[in-house]
Specification:
Blueprint (H helix, E strand, L loop, with lengths): L4 E4 L6 E4 L5 E5 L2 H7 L4 E7 L3 E5 L3 E6 L5 E6 L6 E6 L5 E5 L10 E6 L15 E2 L9
Amino acid sequence: MPESMTGGCLCGKIRYTVSQPLQNVIACHCTHCQKASGAGASHNAVVQLSAVTFTSGKPRLFADTAQSGNILNRFFCGDCGSAIYSQRSKAPDMIALKVGTLDASGDMKLIMNIWTKSARSWMHLDPASECHPENRPVKT
């Protein structure tokens, strides 16, 4: 895994660097992520906000009341609309980086699907990954 990874939006106005290794991808199948991504799921890597540096541009914010009832801040490019990351109001130091915005994804692997009760019938759920009907269980 490289020391850092780079990424950005479709139009290139937003660019970022991630200094934390990214390996695991979580797919969220909630209806809000489907609409925000325009796809059957949003594919994310959980990373510390402090590990992400924006080198150009600044994402815009849409505060969403997620399917769980929690506030989910969704950050996107105000010019091209690319979703960049989301951030739970209850965990402001962690973000869910949209892995489709990375320039290269290396050896990342899908390890978990959440909100599978909302998954589209045409979405393949990898049986080798964890699947949860709603949010992943809180670790105790």
